[in-house]
Write a structure and sequence with these properties.
It contains 15 helices and 4 strands. InterPro entries: Kinase-like_dom_sf (IPR011009), Prot_kinase_dom (IPR000719), Ser/Thr_kinase_AS (IPR008271).
């Protein structure tokens, strides 16, 4: 099963969000990782753009925090490793997430250098902001609240001063290794902060982790959501359905009705600019099929393997008149290295 996200074309045009949707599609079709929500298909119809992605029925971490779930150090330790692998993968593609929070199955807190950007002359920020957020995520999962109390209305100057004068308080019940790791992730100076997979893997607290097993999802998580209940707030989902002006389950009748109106006097044609924009969206929309892509990649790989074997056999025949003892030895060494 998959999850499907759909976006109304006309609304996206009116809100000037088409470029963002296209950019999201462009990024997601190039990513494939076990700890990311991967894009599988994208398609469109007259009204909407559709994205089909991995379905995660366990709910997000924010929901479980609100349900007073107590995350053990072992569970958080595994989350840190999984998120570190995901961040390292994104970093390889020159992507800064910048919105890691429990709501996104990850955490919400900006690094100090992000707020410095709003101050005249402040430096920019890079990948270390995501590793700061990883530290904030782990802290909140363990303690139930964040180390800094920052709200959307908190002035920038107050936030910057908070980072200067306030110290992060770590629970005395946490093991020393976890505290040491969090301190390195929550270092305010981005130059001194742990900010790569290698940095995190070198932490003594994670020395016993089997990273291959983490990547393969072979380790048993410390917290497993209940399969017998809905791991989200049903009232929120119901509100979305009620407020949806063009619900998906009524699309077939709606499109049929619109098509029948097109040939009548009562039809109200869209204004020229909007119609032109809709046509541009239709032409430039990226259609994607990951299953088809994987099949093509598999066929290409098989073809290259076949050509490689054929080339090796031809090369062997050409070498028959040479010093086969020397060439054969050199080839075997080269192939095994």
């Amino acid at each position: 099963m998959y999850a499907m996200k759909y976006m109304n074309k006309q609304k996206c045009i009116e809100r000037d969000e088409v470029r963002n949707v296209f950019r999201e599609l462009q990024i997601m079709r190039g990513l494939d990782h076990p700890f990311l929500v991967n894009l599988w298909y994208s398609f469109q119809d007259e009204e909407d753009m559709f994205m089909v992605v991995d379905l995660l029925l366990g709910g997000d971490l924010r929901y479980h925090l609100q349900q007073n779930v107590h995350f053990t150090e072992g569970a958080v330790k595994l989350y840190i490793c999984e998120l570190a692998l995901a961040l390292e993968y994104l970093q390889r593609f020159h992507i800064i997430h910048r919105d890691i929070k429990p709501d996104n199955i990850l955490l919400d807190e900006h690094a100090p250098e992000v707020f410095q950007v709003y101050v005249e002359g402040g430096p920019g920020y890079s990948y270390p902001v995501d590793w700061w957020s990883l530290g904030i995520t782990a802290y909140e999962l363990l303690r139930g609240w964040r180390p800094y109390e920052i709200h959307s209305a908190t002035p920038i100057d107050e936030i910057l001063n908070m980072f200067k004068v306030e110290r992060v308080h770590y629970s005395s019940t946490w093991c020393k290794g976890m505290v040491a790791l969090l301190k390195k992730l929550l270092t305010k100076d981005p130059e001194s902060r742990l900010s790569s997979l290698g940095d995190v893997q070198s932490a003594p607290y994670l020395a016993d982790m089997n990273w291959d097993a983490v990547f393969e999802k072979a380790l048993t998580p410390g917290f497993v959501p209940s399969k017998g209940r809905l791991n989200c707030d049903p009232t929120f989902e119901l509100e979305e359905m009620i407020l949806e002006s063009r619900p998906l389950h009524k699309k077939k009748k709606r499109l049929a009705k619109n098509r029948s109106k097109d040939g009548t006097k009562d039809s109200c044609p869209l204004n020229g600019h909007l119609q032109q924009c809709l046509e541009t969206v239709r032409k430039e929309f990226i259609i994607f099929n990951r299953e088809k892509l994987r099949r093509q990649q598999g066929q290409t790989s098989q073809l290259l393997d076949t050509e490689g074997r054929a080339g090796s056999q031809t090369q062997g025949k050409l070498q028959d008149g040479c010093n086969n003892n020397i060439l054969g030895h050199a080839c075997s060494r080269g192939c095994s290295s």
